[in-house]
Design a protein that fits this description.
Blueprint (H helix, E strand, L loop, with lengths): L2 H9 L12 H10 L2 H20 L2 H31 L1 E4 L2 H5 L6 E6 L3 E6 L4 E5 L5 H12 L7 H25 L6 H11 E5 L5 H14 L7 E12 L5 E11 L5 E10 L5 E6 L14 H9 L2 H6 L7 E12 L4 E4 L5 E2 L7 E10 L9 E5 L18 H7 L1 H6 L7 E5 L3 E8 L10 E6 L2 E5 L15 E11 L8 E11 L5 E12 L4 E3 L1 H10 L7 H11 L1
Parallel strand pairs: 1-4, 11-14
Antiparallel strand pairs: 2-3, 3-4, 5-9, 6-7, 6-10, 7-8, 8-9, 10-13, 11-12, 13-14, 15-16, 16-17, 17-18, 19-20, 20-21, 21-22
Length: 554
């Protein structure tokens, strides 16, 4: 640099670059970004980024986007290099000799403000000219000198380049955003998967050892799967002779403790493609619980059935399958086999030709000539040697009469009593907690020894309490009183429920059931129950208060 420039710098030692109010970093970045080749690469980058978001075409767009990214990394590196160089070699001058000694071809680009002018020289130094120290003729000469600077270094070019960058950025951004709108582009599908897709490793991959319950346990490691589930379509699973699960597909609806729909779950697994189960959420906006498609019987049945022995009869097969639709009807006894929770299986009687119930078909997907075995799951029913036929009812409408074992398994001991009742004699009144899922109410029986004499009627069909008072919690009290003064003991039961009022808050609720004694049966007195619910506050709903109200009512 000339001696005059050095002298100028020395004479203005107190003037710093910050006084110019012109950020050197951004000026350098702007220069690099507005180079013609960089503008072209910028347009190419946005075009292929849009094409990637709109159409995918990974094999074509990804390599170009990566090359553009590499280019911009290099451009950023070059910009940083210039910034460092210009920052280290900075001259501040009011000396006319210093300015006049700079030739137009030595200027890479310049920035001119009201009181200051920055000359970025090709020798990677920057000259900061304080215009307040120049006379009028000197300013005119400076203007003439700057007019001879290369067009790419002038303000007009930088403004045009800025307009180009703004248009490309805004238009490209709008196209990318539009591709993210549902069903408008590839990006929207990717975002849907990111929001709704989950993956879980199938650890329990042997159907003999872990059953369906093992699959659900693995899914619950990644998805908050509720306990109450029912099928939207079907459950189809294939497995190898050694029990290794090969594929399964299903779509399930989930329900919370109040019986409200939570979400749907489209579940797939193909061992040949991945060791992970794929779960898609949010496929359905809503659904009602369908007891005929309850998933519970499938989970119980596969754990109980002699699956290895069943498929072991079919030699030479590389794959077997399990198919479940919920309850199904069958005409003809071919392949029909009754199954209970103990794993006991029995063939139907020869006289039966119509069957209905929760059906789990075990079949050979590669050989349709082999007749499937269709297990009708009977839950807790017992096989009595003297019975000629069996009912495949899983829920307690009929199954409860045969299953003292089930009654004992779900018995609430503190609310079960030995009692003497007209028409029944010495019996045990048994209260049972829900036996199948969260959407069920308690049930009640009269038992003598190992025999179920009577099952009390339900408030609703299938003992379902969806939308009633919440989830069953406990039995508060049981009393035997002659309410209608007909000489027979009636039954009053106080029941407790929990109603979910929010994500983490539940509200206790109290209900009452009144059974009036008839001839060898009991009737649910719904009118009395409604009056009690309307006239007595839930906090005051206890046996003596209820009886007092019913006496005054009469």
């Amino acid at each position: 640099m000339s001696q005059s420039m050095k002298e100028g710098h020395g004479n203005t030692k107190g003037l710093s670059y910050e006084n110019s109010k012109t950020p050197l970093f951004w000026r350098t970045a702007w220069y690099v970004g507005t180079r013609p080749l960089n503008l072209i690469v910028y347009g190419i980058t946005w075009f292929h980024l849009y094409s990637l978001c709109q159409f995918g075409r990974l094999h074509k767009n990804i390599p170009i986007v990566i090359l553009c990214l590499a280019w911009w990394i290099g451009a950023v590196g070059y910009g940083l290099f210039l910034w460092i160089c210009y920052g280290k070699r900075r001259e501040v001058s009011e000396s006319w000799d210093a300015i006049s000694g700079v030739k137009a071809e030595d200027v890479r680009w310049y920035v001119r403000k009201k009181d200051v002018c920055l000359l970025f020289l090709k020798n990677r130094s920057v000259l900061v000219v304080n215009l307040q120290g120049l006379a009028g003729d000197e300013r005119d000469f400076l203007d003439l000198k700057l007019s001879a600077v290369n067009a790419l270094g002038k303000r007009k070019y930088r403004l045009l380049a800025g307009v180009f960058l703004m248009i490309v950025t805004l238009y490209g951004s709008a196209l990318v955003v539009r591709s993210a709108v549902p069903y408008n582009g590839k990006l929207s599908w990717y975002l849907d998967e990111l929001r709704d897709k989950r993956s879980a490793v199938l650890v329990h991959d042997n159907i003999y050892e872990s059953g369906i319950d093992g699959i659900l346990k693995d899914i619950r490691t990644k998805v908050k799967l509720p306990e109450t589930l029912c099928l939207a379509t079907s459950f189809n699973l294939h497995f190898a002779p050694d029990g290794t699960i090969q594929t399964f597909d299903t779509m399930l609806y989930g329900f919370d403790e109040d019986g409200q729909f939570t979400d749907s779950y489209l579940i797939t697994y193909h061992a040949a493609r991945s060791e992970e189960i794929t779960i898609y959420l949010g496929g359905a906006a809503g659904a009602d619980f369908d007891v005929e498609k309850d998933l519970g019987p499938l989970v119980e049945a596969v754990s109980a059935m002699p699956l290895r022995e069943t498929v072991g009869k079919w030699d030479g097969q590389e794959s077997f399958g399990i198919l479940y639709y919920g309850t199904r009807e069958w005409h003809g006894s071919e392949g029909i086999c009754y199954l209970n929770h103990k794993g006991e299986s029995r063939l139907p009687s020869a006289k039966d030709d119509y069957f209905a119930g929760y059906s789990i078909s075990v079949f050979c997907p590669e050989d349709e000539a082999i007749a499937p075995v269709r297990y009708l799951y009977m839950g807790y029913q017992s096989f009595l040697e003297e019975e000629a036929g069996y009912s495949a009812d899983y829920y307690p409408e009929e199954a409860g009469y045969r299953s003292i074992e089930k009654v004992n398994a779900y018995k609430i001991a503190e609310q079960s009593f030995a009692v003497s009742l007209e028409d029944w004699g010495e019996v045990t009144f048994v209260s049972c907690k829900p036996q199948f899922h969260d959407l069920e109410d308690a049930s009640f029986f009269l038992v003598r020894g190992e025999q179920i004499l009577y099952q009390f009627p339900y408030l609703r069909e299938d003992n379902n309490i969806v939308g009633y008072m919440g989830v069953f919690d406990d039995i508060g009290a049981v009393a035997f009183r002659d309410i209608n003064e007909d000489g027979k003991q009636d039954v009053i039961i106080v029941t407790y429920y929990c109603y979910r009022a929010g994500a983490d808050k539940t509200v206790p609720r109290t209900g009452v059931k009144i059974f009036l004694a008839g001839e060898q049966e009991f009737y649910l007195a719904e009118d009395m129950m409604m009056e009690v619910a309307e006239q007595i506050a839930e906090k005051d709903m206890y046996i003596e208060r209820i009886c007092e109200f019913l006496r005054d009512r009469n």
